Amino acid sequence: MNQSIGIDEVKVGMYLVSLHECETNLQVKSQGLIKSTATIESLKRRGVKSIIIDADKSVHASHVKSQTDITKLSKENDVSVEHKPALSPQILDFAKHQEHLAKADKLYTQARALQSRFIKQLRSGDAPDFDVLNAMCQDVIDSVFENNEALSCLVMLKDTSDYLVEHSLNCAILLSMFATHRGMTQAEIEDLTLSGLLMDLGMALLPDELAARQDEYSQADLTLMRSHVDIGAEIVERYADLPPMVREVILNHHERVDGSGYPKQKSGEAVSIYAQMAGLVDTYDAMITDRKFRSSRTAQDVLEKLETDASFDSELVEAFIAAIGLYPVGALVHLSSGKLAIVVQKHPKYPLKPKVMSFYSIRNKMHTEVKLTDLSKSSDKIKSVVRPEEFDLNLPQFFKKVFRS
Hints:
By secondary structure, the chain is of the alpha+beta class. The chain folds into three domains: 2-84, no CATH class; 95-324, Orthogonal Bundle (Hypothetical protein af1432); 332-402, no CATH class. The protein has helices at 37-45, 67-75, 89-92, 94-124, 130-155, 163-181, 186-198, 208-211, 219-226, 228-239, 244-252, 273-287, 299-307, 314-324, 395-402, and strands at 2-6, 15-22, 26-30, 32-33, 48-54, 80-83, 332-335, 339-345, 355-361, 366-374, 382-385. The longest helix has 31 residues, at 94-124. The two termini are 25 Å apart.
């Protein structure tokens, strides 16, 4: 029979089943008899307030009179405890997370191929197939509703061999997440997702050497680059009957609420909420991506910059940070300390500083002691989300060994 007793009532010979109240992440590794006062004192020092015992299996020291009792006390397994992190329900459902991630990865690969074909049609002078993009947008939205955390991981995995293709797809995904988080209507979510795919469409018809520049743009270069707004609007007007919001976003996603944008230097309420959302997403994804003329910045650095950027509405920036879910539970991340870690708990106030479990040294290419770190109380921070395959890691196996043994 199991019962709970306070730590001050614990006696040698009691059979410990589990910890009831504990101030630390201490857990019972193997059940057994408490065979010495030293074990009891150790439990007290480690923050244990009460325990669960099996009274039927206990051999109280005051009752140890027969040789049978003495033999049982000496031969029975001693209790063993160890530090283990408390797990959230999401961690326990890690396999399901991996399943969602694989499904999202397949969708992302297919969508990237379709977007690439669409842009090639434009560049070759053929009439682009907008119906294909509409169908792809619905698939993206469905995936966001099913598990937006899986798609958010993929947005962080960059392949810059064709920047325009990935950038437009990432913007579509991020806008779908953003609009869903803000509780927008289904029509608004669909139109914003399509806007993400199309808002930089005009870039496809600009000279290749402009995108290949490795130094700072001249004023003439900037003027030509900014013409992609009008080019994109002309393309969709010529080839497609799209919702008004899509054309409005294409024309205004570079306008800013403080009047510093282009091409019309609109400001305040003249810049629709849709254009503001698109501009925020466009800027964010561009800055976290390596370009030929500059290196990428970490997500944290970019979002911190956006929070203080007067050209964006501060409340909208905060809503975006809350929406994108950059570090889902179960994601593998690269820390600035040179370690790999798994996100184990999001921080409700600081979404960029979750609790993580580090376990691998990238520098030494070896497993290290598992350590729980609250990044909101540490100088360490997340540099990027990475794939387990990059480091030849079997994460399900690691979870089974460390968290479920």
